[in-house]
């Protein structure tokens, strides 16, 4: 009986060891979407350190100091500014309804919402469609390219990285003069958005075994869905090999969202 038990125990241990080796092999295997993973992980660690030391504490103080009504007004104001660039990109992608609704949102909230502080358009049922130049390039057939993590900006791809300068040109805050006002608006937007993500980031820290992989996979999946307008795509159609559309993270692309994208 003891010999049989020992045999069963040894077999179980052997199976567990084999499974562990297989899982370890899968964990370290290269991801064709992320050929620069070693570099990206280092940048991701740097970004998380900056967030922990600077952004998260500032966002926590901001959230505790200002009442929800004021923070909502700040979010609405910057959201209204982003609708202008979303309108342009919707038009460039020939999304007529999205462009019309973004245009209506911009005008309704600017005129009747005290410059966008009040989100009157949402109360009227006018939907917001977030669009950026990376999505526009994707709709034009530009391949996604490898996954990248940018210093201080976070998850991206080669295509989205090349789109960033154009997105910056389309950002109304970038046109504010003098520079002191412009930088103050940038700072306010960063802290406000980070404060809105405090709860989500805490959940991510507690739930994800490998935050880097979770963020990457979620980002690429959602980014693909945004470019494709949510249409399902076969996993065997060669799209990854060709570097075509991959998507965006459900935690709202923490760093790029901080920059207003």
Automatic annotation (TrEMBL):
Origin organism lineage: Bacteria, Pseudomonadati, Pseudomonadota, Betaproteobacteria, Burkholderiales
Entry-linked Pfam families: MlaA
Similarity comment text for this entry: Belongs to the MlaA family.
GO cellular component: membrane
Any one biological process term the GO annotation gives: intermembrane phospholipid transfer
Region: Disordered, residue numbers: 223-253
Transmembrane helix found in the keyword field: no
Basic and acidic residues bias locations: 223-236
UniProt keyword terms in alphabetical order: Lipoprotein, Signal
UniProt-recorded name of the protein: Lipoprotein-like protein
Species this chain originates from: Ramlibacter tataouinensis (strain ATCC BAA-407 / DSM 14655 / LMG 21543 / TTB310)
Keyword Iron-sulfur attributed: no
């Amino acid at each position: 009986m003891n010999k049989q038990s020992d045999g069963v125990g040894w077999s179980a241990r052997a199976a567990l060891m084999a499974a562990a080796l297989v899982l370890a092999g899968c964990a370290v295997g290269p991801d064709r979407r992320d050929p620069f993973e070693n570099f990206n992980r280092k940048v991701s660690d740097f970004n998380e350190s900056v967030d922990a030391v600077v952004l998260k504490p500032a966002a926590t103080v901001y959230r505790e100091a200002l009442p929800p009504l004021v923070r909502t007004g700040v979010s609405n104001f910057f959201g209204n500014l982003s609708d202008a660039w979303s309108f342009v990109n919707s038009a460039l992608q020939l999304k007529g309804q999205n462009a019309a609704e973004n245009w209506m949102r911009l005008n309704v909230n600017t005129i009747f919402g005290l410059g966008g502080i009040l989100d009157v358009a949402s109360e009227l049922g006018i939907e917001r469609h977030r669009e950026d130049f990376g999505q526009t390039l994707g709709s034009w057939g530009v391949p996604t390219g490898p996954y990248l993590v940018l210093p201080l900006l976070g998850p991206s791809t080669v295509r989205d990285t090349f789109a960033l300068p154009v997105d910056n040109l389309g950002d109304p805050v970038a046109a504010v003069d003098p520079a002191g006002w412009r930088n103050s608006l940038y700072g306010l937007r960063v802290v406000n958005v980070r404060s809105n993500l405090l709860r989500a980031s805490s959940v991510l820290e507690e739930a994800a075994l490998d935050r880097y992989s979770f963020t990457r996979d979620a980002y690429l999946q959602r980014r693909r869905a945004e470019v494709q307008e949510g249409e399902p795509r076969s996993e065997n159609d060669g799209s990854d090999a060709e570097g075509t559309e991959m998507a965006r993270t459900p935690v709202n692309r923490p760093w790029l969202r901080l920059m207003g994208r």
